[in-house]
Amino acid sequence: MYKLIIRPLLFCFDPEKVHYFTFSAVRFINKIPFVSSIIKNVYQVNDKKLERNLFGLTFKNPVGLAAGFDKDAKLFNELNNFGFGFIEIGTLTPKPQEGNPKKRLFRLKADKAIINRMGFNNGGVFEAVERLKKNNNVLIGGNIGKNKITPNDDAVEDYIICFNALFNYVDYFVVNVSSPNTPNLRALQDKEPLTKLLQTLQNLNKEKPNPKPILLKIAPDLTNEQLLDIIDIVSDTKIDGVIATNTTISRDGLHDINKTEIGGLSGKPLTNRSTEVIRFLSEKSNKAFPIIGVGGIHTVDDALEKLEAGADLIQLYTGFIYEGPNLIKQINKALIKKED
């Protein structure tokens, strides 16, 4: 039904407007008596075989929603009904910001992809915290970044603000230094500034009564030498894992008319590269840390390939938009079947 009727209808309109419309629609239908229960019955797959235990957390299944979809933590309870094992909110910044000028979100239907240059548009971390206080037992990741106007020399302070504000309301943290849509942000992926940032957060984390897992989200455009640096940084700072990967600035092999738009590319064209990065990190580190695989998961085979390459969990974003919520169910059922 989604791919035959709903998606073609939604894809007739501006992607960003459709995003906000969909949010309103999902929120509305979940308020109708019994509808949330029906959605759960249709899409959720509950089986102990799907559980994953990583960095002290129990994930009910390994299929999560990537950051960027529910930036402001407005719909995590309702989205959880579709069968996700965890929801990552953000990227959040200390101060609210509008993001980049519109139009800033583009479908590449010929390539099953999306280009976005949103620019960390969000209402600020403190507004999100108020909504997270209403969490109905959803496992939440908090993806944090810096404000656009904050110079890189002061970026650590922005991450500290977000870390402290979210600490009691998320289950794990993701440090985002890999979005291509905030000027100079990716410079923070260099070894020296990244080590300083992660070590500062780790030191702060250790002062807490119950430290939270900290993960790093990296770009798919890093060279092998830079990926080896990432392995060293994870070892040195003792953070808990890596999310591979964010969107790419590459435009190789695209066909759609929107391929020249500036921004981060996600979706099917990223499938192979993100898997390559996962496999490289897993093999070169000798599986020294958990990896969450994300990038171009549109089918069950895409998901299994990520897991076989070394991912411990996976996340959907563009695949969820193109394929619909049934993809979560299909992946989880395939994982159960594989273990039988």
Automatic annotation (TrEMBL):
SUPFAM superfamilies found in the cross-reference section: FMN-linked oxidoreductases (SSF51395)
Catalyzed reactions: (S)-dihydroorotate + a quinone = orotate + a quinol
Residues of the Dihydroorotate dehydrogenase catalytic domain: 50-337
Entry's EC annotation: 1.3.5.2
Membrane topology: Peripheral membrane protein
Superkingdom of origin: Bacteria
Subcellular location: Cell membrane; Membrane
Chain positions recorded as substrate binding sites: 71, 116-120, 176, 181, 246-247
Gene Ontology terms for molecular function: dihydroorotate dehydrogenase (quinone) activity
GO cellular component: cytoplasm; plasma membrane
Keywords: Cell membrane, Flavoprotein, FMN, Membrane, Oxidoreductase, Pyrimidine biosynthesis
Co-factor: note: Binds 1 FMN per subunit.
Oligomeric and partner information: Monomer.
Record function comment: Catalyzes the conversion of dihydroorotate to orotate with quinone as electron acceptor.
Name of protein: Dihydroorotate dehydrogenase (quinone)
Lineage: Bacteria, Pseudomonadati, Bacteroidota, Flavobacteriia, Flavobacteriales
